[in-house]
Amino acid sequence: MMTGFRLNLSPLKEPLGFVKLVEWLTAIFAFGCCGGFSGKNIISIFCGNDRNETLNAIYQYPFRLSHFPLIDKNTTLCNHSVTTTHMVGDSASSAEFFVGVGIVCFLYSMVALLVYLGYMHVYKDSDFGPIFDFVITALLVFLWLVCSSAWAKGLQNVKDATDTEGISGTLALCKGSNITCEVTDFANMRTLNISVVFGFLNMFVWAFNAWFVYKETRWHSRKFSSQPGPGRQQVPAPI
Fold first, then answer.
1. Terminal alpha carbon distance of the chain
2. Could you report the per-residue pLDDT of 201-214, keeping only the tens digit for each?
């Protein structure tokens, strides 16, 4: 059996190769929209005496909010002494898990495309290649489901921690009877919302691709080869 590289672009015209190319692109959008995020919320503090103060809440991936200060050092706001205060919350585990799965899928898609386009003759002549491909594809479907669900919850936690209610609960100053805190300018989280959408989209795309990978395995071929052909009748065994 020849095992050398043979460039053949025809797999891209078939679902097996074309869907793998789509997976490569959707993985880039998923981890790119999440991993590159940096945002800033502007908090207005209304002191109740026609005097206002402003704070900036700056945060970014991987969203360890407790590492980002609302008040960097001891200062005075609305004639009140305020100590160093950090935001509350940590969504790093779900965000990093999501980005990690995306990067793994990005790399695996590239390797699989290389095999499809250059070593398809080896891939189809062996049992190991299609079965390994199917098992990894099925595993990645599950990982996309888990990491997308976890990141969707983590993103909601980030939104809750950085909105008016979350900031007011973090700053002791905002609990005063005549002092009101309000987030007047929110960071644009459109890319984070898009990352969640692409996470679940990846799950469906990989699940769709799993069927075409399964068709390349011996399990599928044996299933159909064992079925009697049309018009064939079973001959009764001699007595």
1. 46
2. 999 999 999 998 88
Q: Are strands 180-185 and 80-82 parallel, antiparallel or unpaired?
A: unpaired
**pLDDT tens, 122-177?**
888 878 888 999 999 999 999 999 999 999 999 999 999 999 999 888 888 887 66
Per-domain residue ranges of the chain = 10-214
Identify whether the C-beta of residue 116 lies closer than 8 Å to the C-beta of residue 20: yes
CA 94, CA 133: separation in Å to the nearest integer?
Answer: 26
Stated pTM of the model? 0.84
Q: Tokens in use for 19?
A: 């869907």
